[in-house]
Amino acid sequence: AQKVTQAQTEISVVEKEDVTLDCVYETRDTTYYLFWYKQPPSGELVFLIRRNSFDEQNEISGRYSWNFQKSTSSFNFTITASQVVDSAVYFCALSEAGQAGTALIFGKGTTLSVSS
Amino acid sequence: SQTIHQWPATLVQPVGSPLSLECTVEGTSNPNLYWYRQAAGRGLQLLFYSVGIGQISSEVPQNLSASRPQDRQFILSSKKLLLSDSGFYLCAWSRGSSGANVLTFGAGSRLTVL
Prior knowledge:
The structure holds 2 protein chains of 2 kinds. Chain A has no helices and 12 strands. Chain A is mainly beta. In chain A, the strands form 3 sheets. In chain A, strands 2, 5, 6, 10, 11 and 12 form a 6-stranded mixed beta sheet that branches. Chain A has a 4-stranded antiparallel beta sheet with strand order 3-9-8-7, with no helix packed on it. Chain B is mostly beta strands. Helices cover about 0% and strands about 55% of the residues of chain B. Chain B has no helices and 11 strands. In chain B, the strands form 2 sheets. In chain B, strands 2, 4, 5, 6, 9, 10 and 11 form a 7-stranded mixed beta sheet that branches. A 4-stranded antiparallel beta sheet of chain B has the order 1-3-8-7, with no helix packed on it. The interface of A and B includes residues 33, 37, 52, 106 and 107 of A.
């Protein structure tokens, strides 16, 4: 069965600190996709990144970086030098190949609070 | 470019009253459409998805129903709301039918049932 676990419910940091949001997933498929979404206080979910199961290269986009490790079934998200605008709920999600969004399973989210 | 509209943004309804939330997508054709619910302190739960007009799949049996009367219109309804229907409802769309497709979400509708 598919499952996404975000064990950190809430994280609080001070501006300029680095922070890592953990995501552990379970799936029986060999082909699958992992996503991160950001939900700012306004409520709308914003897509951040998609990774397929065959690409374990880490990715960096500005202050954001993602570490995908199939050996530990993890897809962690790091924000470097955090800013107040990073305060949001972050969701990790999993979907299996060949299926529509029915298979997009979300974790329960991690609420990140960045104070100045 | 594609845009997704969802309304109303906020709704306060008494228990037992009906519900209608609307979602429309512009700038694309034959999108896959989804309704998710986010209850307080919980993740996103998929309620319904649709791959075409009149085609609705329900993921969780409950007090809600969905319809897709037009290609780019998706409606979430209830005949009689329950307290447990309170939550944040998000409509989303994607292209195609692959798990690789990114979901784009609307701004959400916050429903409070009193």
